[in-house]
Design goal:
15% of the residues lie in helices and 30% in strands. Strand 3 and strand 4 form a beta hairpin. It has 84 residues and is of the alpha+beta class. 2% of the residues are buried.
Length: 84
């Protein structure tokens, strides 16, 4: 690889403020603030809006909304599929 082509890849802490959840990882992103993690090292903090701790798919609160009643209209128009 060419030197000085890639950004620095180092340890950071991603913090989900909505769920009050943080986890250490490695990234090329750097945050404006720092925090001391459990291992005693100071790491930059990157604030995120959604993580696996707050996303509806991962928390089991996801819902499918059919506000236009498209499924019912399709079934009424073409009938239910019964399979073979």
């Amino acid at each position: 690889m060419k030197p000085d082509t890639h950004p620095a890849y180092g340890p950071v802490v991603f913090r989900d403020k909505a769920a009050d959840f943080a986890f250490p990882t490695r990234s090329t992103l750097t945050g404006g603030t720092t925090t001391e993690w459990e291992d005693g090292r100071t790491r930059p903090v990157v604030d995120v809006e959604t993580s696996s701790a707050s996303h509806p798919f991962h928390t089991g609160t996801a819902r499918v909304l059919d506000t236009a009643r498209r499924v019912e209209r399709f079934e009424r128009r073409y009938g239910r599929f019964e399979g073979r």
